[in-house]
Amino acid sequence: MLQQLKHYLDVTGHQPPPASELDMPAAVLIPITNNPAQPSVILTRRADHLSTHSGEVSLPGGKWEPQDDNLLQTALRETREEIGLCPSQVQVLGALPIYQTWRGVNVVPFVGVVPTNAELTPNEGELDAIFEVPLAFFLDDPRIRTDIFERTIGHTWSPAYQFNEFEIWGFTARVLVSFLNDALGLGIERDSAAPVKDWGTVRSLTPTV
Asked: How many structural domains is the chain composed of?
C-alpha cells in the first residue's frame, strides 16, 4: 500500500505555492507508519481546555509562521511541537492539493512515512492524546454518518468515523479519505449506507485546522 501511495504522489507531483501567495496559509502532516503489513496514520486529539476545536481529532500541523522557509517546514515544525516527532524521522513523499477550510484557511497537506516505533510525546498544552488508525480502517469506509455542509468555501461533505473512543470527522476525515480515495481508486463517495445528516449552516462543531 505504501508503494501505491508513493507512486500516486510521484505521478501527481503537486508543488505547493509559496506561503506568501496564500491567504491564511497553513500546513499539516499525514504521518504514516512504515509497517508494510499494516501502515497506520498518526492522529491527535486536541486538548479539552483549548478555546477552539477543543476535543477534536486532527492531523499534526498548524498555521504558517514568518520564520518558516516554506509550508513543508511549517508542517514539520508543528508536528515536532505537537507530538515530538523529529523532522529527520519523516520521509516526505509529497504534497496534496490545497484544502480550504470554511474559515478561508488554505491548508497544504504533506504525506510522510515515519518509523513504526517512533517515540511520540503529546504537547500537554495542545493535545490530550496521540493515537494510530490503520489505513485499512478507512479503506473499509465504516462511517457512522455523512455530514453535509452548506458553505460557499471549504468542503461540502465529510464522512464521520468512530475509532475506539475517537470520532474522526470534518476536515481531518475529508483530507484522509480524499487522499486514499484518489491514490487507491477506492470509489468512496458522498452516498453510503450510513445515515446522511444534513447540518446546514447551524452545525456548532467546526472542522479542524
From this structure: 1
